């Protein structure tokens, strides 16, 4: 689908209505999970026609991926504090502990669905993984341009692995949700040293 066609589809509803639909989709995901979520249920919850939902999003996978993307607090690449540590800390502080716990629970549920659903995996790559990877690389490129990080630092290609890994592993290993304090400590102890940037 071209950007022009996608823009035409989205223009048929207001941004406020789009946000309401995405919030309803996330609520349903938390209640029943991806596999049990249906376009009929979304239509009923949002008082929309199923035809409208398919016209706007094409299917469940794209709708869910875009709802998750919309729920994220702003664009990674928009953060520019003047230092890599400042940028990574600012990104972490955009979501409070309660929001992180909700996001962690949601993503744990979706992780299972992604591996068993090629359409959902494709939508997640297109709308979440690839855009966020590109944005994190812009943050790192600014650090390279400032002279904070060497351009040939091998850790650059693993930035998303590190950031997502800490978020996901917190619950698996410690049986606790990710928190601001935990992620800030992780950034200072693991991420910044990997890039050769002092944490202090």
UniProtKB/TrEMBL annotation:
InterPro entries: Homeodomain-like_sf (IPR009057), HTH-type_TetR-like_transc_reg (IPR050109), HTH_TetR (IPR001647), Tet_transcr_reg_TetR-rel_C_sf (IPR036271), TetR_C (IPR011075). Residues 38-57 bind DNA. Keywords: DNA-binding, Transcription, Transcription regulation. Coiled coil: none annotated. Residues 15-75 form the HTH tetR-type domain. This is TetR family transcriptional regulator. It comes from Streptomyces canarius.
């Amino acid at each position: 689908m071209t950007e022009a066609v996608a823009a035409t589809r989205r223009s048929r509803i207001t941004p406020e209505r789009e946000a309401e639909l995405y919030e309803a989709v996330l609520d349903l995901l938390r209640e029943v999970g991806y596999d049990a979520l249906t376009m009929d249920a979304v239509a009923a919850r949002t008082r929309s026609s199923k035809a409208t939902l398919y016209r706007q999003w094409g299917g469940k996978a794209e709708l869910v991926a875009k709802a998750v993307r919309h729920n994220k607090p702003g664009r990674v690449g928009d953060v520019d504090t003047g230092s890599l540590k400042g940028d990574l800390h600012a990104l972490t502080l955009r979501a409070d502990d309660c929001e992180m716990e909700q996001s962690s629970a949601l993503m744990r549920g979706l992780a299972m669905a992604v591996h068993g659903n090629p359409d959902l995996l494709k939508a997640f790559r297109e709308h979440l993984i690839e855009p966020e990877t590109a944005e994190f690389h812009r943050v790192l490129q600014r650090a390279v341009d400032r002279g904070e990080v060497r351009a040939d630092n091998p850790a650059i290609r693993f930035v998303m692995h590190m950031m997502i890994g800490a978020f996901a592993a917190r619950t698996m290993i410690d049986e606790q949700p990710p928190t601001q304090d935990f992620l800030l400590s992780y950034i200072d102890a693991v991420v910044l040293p990997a890039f050769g940037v002092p944490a202090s």
